[in-house]
């Protein structure tokens, strides 16, 4: 029966839980309300002939630096980069200035973001030794992605590194806790291994064992506390092999940069622009990550978008800050891996849509299905193009992937039925709203 819709996506290859099919999708009130042919009329009709319509891609780890560090990035500029790259929702991290570690600061971020961010969004609460007992209430605030623990020092001042404090954090609340797993004691003991002016010494200092010790510690503590955890930006094959034996309690993330860059090339070519925590490691590490990714161990992809200015990154190592932008390049980098045969499109969808939905308990996101939010990442799998500086939207205005030739690009980003980006052009206004979670909707 013919109906009227707000939006119809016509003639695309639509990726639903049942597989890929050339069909149409009808949207009304921000939701998917019909999938099929001859749907009827709509206020907006998008011809997707030759394009693939994916569930909206979700980047579950970004640092947008607001408040306090807006010279690097802010919520508007970071989310603009996100939608230009095909991302429909982001989870933003708490190491801002001040840290996002109280109800007041969570609500401040939510207020700053509403209809100012281009994509939907959620904010992590930062764990500290001082707020451990309050976390069980803070994690229930609508719009929060949960709790984040830094076991090793990175950008900012958030750090919980001893077992007693970690146990208190894990005992306070029930949601899955996100973990930056590097062992602070080992890294402090190895600081002399940093070589002045040589960023290639970064992975020597923050070595494999720093990561593995922390991963084993936090899984042991989580098991004793009976608390689910999510280990971020895993960089070593050994960690993924270990996590594979603890999937009942631990999920994990890998990043596009660790799947794409290798130390042997990255540090000579990029210098401190390749510096991040945990580090870019060897080509052998990279191939090991791919092995375990195709064994199904990583649950999600996150960009760990962590911008710093050119002036900051130009400082001599180790005075240079760790982190690189990545939210805008997550989708195209992985589509290029699809084009080159390292990754299936189905697995890409798992890592960027259905995986985040499953791991974090999202409401109405992660798949193209009736009743779900009309979030779509529309991609041209065959488009060949070069990452240019004029395309980059992050305030830091650089990317380690600039001048890289890629196959595959997001041509459209649709958030709850709103066409926020099409062919690199933004809509007239931002529509981003807080992501909904089962843990906060039905608490």
Distance between the termini: 39 Å
Number of strands: 17
| Biggest sheet features | 9 strands, mixed
Beta-strand content bin = 25-35%
Uncertain segments? none
Estimate the global geometry from the Cα principal axes.
Answer: globular
Radius of gyration: 21 Å
Summarize the structure.
GO terms for molecular function: dihydroorotase activity. Its EC number is 3.5.2.3. This protein is α/β, with parallel strands linked by helices and 443 residues long.
Structure overview:
This protein has helices at residues 75-84, 103-113, 135-138, 163-171, 184-189, 202-205, 208-225, 237-244, 256-260, 263-270, 283-293, 310-313, 330-339, 345-360, 438-441; strands at 3-16, 19-28, 31-36, 40-47, 52-55, 57-62, 87-92, 120-126, 144-150, 177-180, 229-231, 250-254, 300-301, 376-386, 405-415, 418-422, 425-426. The chain is an alpha/beta fold and 443 residues long. Strands 1, 2, 3, 4, 5, 14, 15, 16 and 17 form a nine-stranded mixed beta sheet that branches. An eight-stranded parallel beta sheet has the order 6-7-8-9-10-11-12-13. Helix 4 (163-171) packs across helix 7 (208-225) and helix 8 (237-244) packs parallel to helix 11. The two termini are 39 Å apart. Keywords: Hydrolase, Metal-binding. Residues 53-420 form the Amidohydrolase-related domain. Its EC number is 3.5.2.3.
Topology diagram in text:
Blueprint: E1 3-16, E2 19-28, E3 31-36, E4 40-47, E5 52-55, E6 57-62, H1 75-84, E7 87-92, H2 103-113, E8 120-126, H3 135-138, E9 144-150, H4 163-171, E10 177-180, H5 184-189, H6 202-205, H7 208-225, E11 229-231, H8 237-244, E12 250-254, H9 256-260, H10 263-270, H11 283-293, E13 300-301, H12 310-313, H13 330-339, H14 345-360, E14 376-386, E15 405-415, E16 418-422, E17 425-426, H15 438-441
Parallel strand pairs: 1-4, 1-5, 6-7, 7-8, 8-9, 9-10, 10-11, 11-12, 12-13
Antiparallel strand pairs: 1-2, 2-3, 5-14, 14-15, 15-16, 16-17
Helix pairs in contact: 4-7, 7-8, 8-11
């Amino acid at each position: 029966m013919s109906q009227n819709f707000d939006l119809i996506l016509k003639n695309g290859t639509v990726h639903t839980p049942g597989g890929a099919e050339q069909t149409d999708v009808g949207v009304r009130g921000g939701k998917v309300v019909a999938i099929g042919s001859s749907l009827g009329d709509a206020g907006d009709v998008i011809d997707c002939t030759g394009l693939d319509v994916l569930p909206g891609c979700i980047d579950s780890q970004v640092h947008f630096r607001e408040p306090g560090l807006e010279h690097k990035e802010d919520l508007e500029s970071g989310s603009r980069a996100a939608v230009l790259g095909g991302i429909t929702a982001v989870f933003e991290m708490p190491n801002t200035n001040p840290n996002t570690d109280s109800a007041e600061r969570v609500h401040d971020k939510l207020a700053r973001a509403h209809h100012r961010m281009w994509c939907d969004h959620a904010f992590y609460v930062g764990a500290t030794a001082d707020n451990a007992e309050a976390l069980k209430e803070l994690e229930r605030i609508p719009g929060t992605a949960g709790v984040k623990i830094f076991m090793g020092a990175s950008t900012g001042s958030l750090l919980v590194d001893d077992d007693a404090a970690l146990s208190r954090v894990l005992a306070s609340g029930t949601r899955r806790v996100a973990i930056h797993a590097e062992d602070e004691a080992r890294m402090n003991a190895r600081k002399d291994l940093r070589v002045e002016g040589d960023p290639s010494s970064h992975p020597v200092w923050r070595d494999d064992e720093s990561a593995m010790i922390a991963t084993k510690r936090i899984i042991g503590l989580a098991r004793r506390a009976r608390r689910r955890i999510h280990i971020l930006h895993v960089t070593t094959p050994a960690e993924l092999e270990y996590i594979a034996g603890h999937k009942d309690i631990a999920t994990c993330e890998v990043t596009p940069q660790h799947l794409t860059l290798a130390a042997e090339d990255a540090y000579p070519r990029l210098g401190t622009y390749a510096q991040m925590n945990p580090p870019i490691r060897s080509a052998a590490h990279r191939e090991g990550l791919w092995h375990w990714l195709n064994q199904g161990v990583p649950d999600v992809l996150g960009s760990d978008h962590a911008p710093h200015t050119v002036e900051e990154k130009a400082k001599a190592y180790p005075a240079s800050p760790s982190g690189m932008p990545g939210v805008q390049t997550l989708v195209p980098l992985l589509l290029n891996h699809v084009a080159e045969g390292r990754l299936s499109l189905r697995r890409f969808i798992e890592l960027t849509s259905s995986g985040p939905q499953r791991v974090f308990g999202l409401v109405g996101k992660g798949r193209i299905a009736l009743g779900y939010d009309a979030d779509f990442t529309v991609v041209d799998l065959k488009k060949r193009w070069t990452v240019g500086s004029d395309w980059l939207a992050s305030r830091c205005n650089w990317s380690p992937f600039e001048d890289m030739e890629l196959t595959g690009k997001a041509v459209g980003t649709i958030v709850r039925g709103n066409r926020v980006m099409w062919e690199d052009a933004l809509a007239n206004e931002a529509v981003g709203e807080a992501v909904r979670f089962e843990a906060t909707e039905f608490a």
